[in-house]
């Protein structure tokens, strides 16, 4: 059994609606988080993301200038200056399966449909903190492994081919990103 | 090989993809609960958050009224300026915000009506050709729901109003999208969130 020390986590919340930002901030503070930064559009969020290196980003989808989906795509650039691996939780009023798929393919880690609930938010945060997924890089995707289950019963098309892997170790990009800020 | 530090990355390269594994950089925020240790004081972060949210609820009525005013203003701009990229986006965002937050604010029927309005804006092939009354009736219904408040018999009337509007909107969208299967599929697909 684990407990999350929220006071050791730094959040960036991105939503153009001030009421939703207030609700999110209230929930995160009541979980125990001290460091919560806020942005009201994707462009500001990207700047704050580079500056503050948040541990977890929670973003709305529909926003002016550029939206949450574009924000996720910009963060998930393997050669980006900032940390491309931070968990992204998409909190949105979009509730169609097609949207979930789009968000997943943009590199979003967790999807949470509004109306927001304390329990739903807590569980998404618990997932990204306690059970991080490996990242996959292909010709046209970079982001958390889109296969949440690795059961032998997978019946979809096999797009990955195995074989012997070359394995290399690299130092922490997160440390590098924090040094650069 | 030295023990990986949090954030260190291991890259396994396969012919078609790479698998990148990190020692959990957020491990520092996880604390294992020792089974035999003296019981820690009861701590339920979700209950704390619910209580904090309840303490904000006194403001929800005013917030909802502001969201309604924003929707009405966006609708007035659309009527005045016609359908432009900006006027369409402003109306959609105002409706979309109500779809997302009205339930939290205690107005689930307003959220459902706003969801119907979002579907019209998103899936009508040409918003300028949508009958004015269809949009105006959605906006007016949301305003009426918020003005009247929720609860008891009012909620039943609001649900009936919403069902009626949603039915008319869905019939319209099905008719104008009969040659656009990707939109038709999206319109008919079930929502991830239970309907009001």
TrEMBL record, chain A:
It comes from the Bacteria. The modification 4-aspartylphosphate is found at residue 60. SUPFAM superfamilies: CheY-like (SSF52172). Keywords: Phosphoprotein. Residues 10-129 form the Response regulatory domain. Residues 142-181 are annotated as: Disordered. InterPro entries: CheY-like_superfamily, Sig_transdc_resp-reg_receiver, ST_Response_Regulator. The keyword DNA damage does not apply. GO terms for biological process: phosphorelay signal transduction system. This is Response regulator receiver protein. It comes from Rhodopseudomonas palustris (strain DX-1).
């Amino acid at each position: 059994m684990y407990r999350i020390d929220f006071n050791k986590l730094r959040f960036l919340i991105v939503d153009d609606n001030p009421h939703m930002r207030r609700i999110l901030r209230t929930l995160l503070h009541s979980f125990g988080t001290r460091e919560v930064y806020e942005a009201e559009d994707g462009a500001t969020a990207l700047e704050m993301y580079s500056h503050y290196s948040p541990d977890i980003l929670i973003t709305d989808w529909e926003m002016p200038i550029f939206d949450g989906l574009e924000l996720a795509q910009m963060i998930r650039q393997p050669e980006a200056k900032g940390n491309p691996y931070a968990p992204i939780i998409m909190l949105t009023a979009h509730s169609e399966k097609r949207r979930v798929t789009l968000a997943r393919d943009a590199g979003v880690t967790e999807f949470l449909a509004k109306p927001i609930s304390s329990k739903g938010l807590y569980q998404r945060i618990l997932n990204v903190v306690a059970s991080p997924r490996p990242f996959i890089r292909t010709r046209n995707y970079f982001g958390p492994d889109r296969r949440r289950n690795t059961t032998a019963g997978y019946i979809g098309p096999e797009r990955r081919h195995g074989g012997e892997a070359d394995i290399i170790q690299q130092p922490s990009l997160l440390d590098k990103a924090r040094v650069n800020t | 090989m030295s023990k990986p530090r949090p954030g260190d990355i291991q890259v396994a390269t396969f012919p078609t993809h790479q698998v990148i594994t990190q020692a959990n950089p957020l491990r520092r925020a996880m604390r294992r609960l020792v089974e035999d240790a003296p019981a820690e004081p009861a701590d339920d972060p979700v209950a704390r958050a619910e209580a904090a949210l309840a303490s904000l609820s006194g403001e929800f009525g005013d917030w909802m009224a502001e969201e309604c005013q924003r929707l009405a203003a966006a609708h007035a701009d659309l009527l005045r300026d016609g359908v432009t990229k900006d006027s369409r986006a402003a109306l959609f965002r105002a409706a979309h915000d109500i779809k997302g937050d009205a339930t939290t604010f205690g107005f689930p029927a307003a959220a459902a009506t706003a969801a119907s309005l979002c579907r019209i804006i998103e899936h009508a092939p040409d918003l300028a050709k949508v009958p004015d009354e269809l949009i105006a009736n959605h906006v007016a219904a949301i305003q009426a729901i918020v003005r009247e408040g929720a609860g008891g018999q009012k909620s039943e009337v609001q649900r009936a109003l919403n069902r009626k509007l949603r039915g008319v909107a869905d019939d319209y969208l099905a008719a104008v999208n009969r040659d656009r299967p990707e939109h038709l599929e999206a319109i008919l697909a079930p929502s991830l969130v239970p309907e009001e």
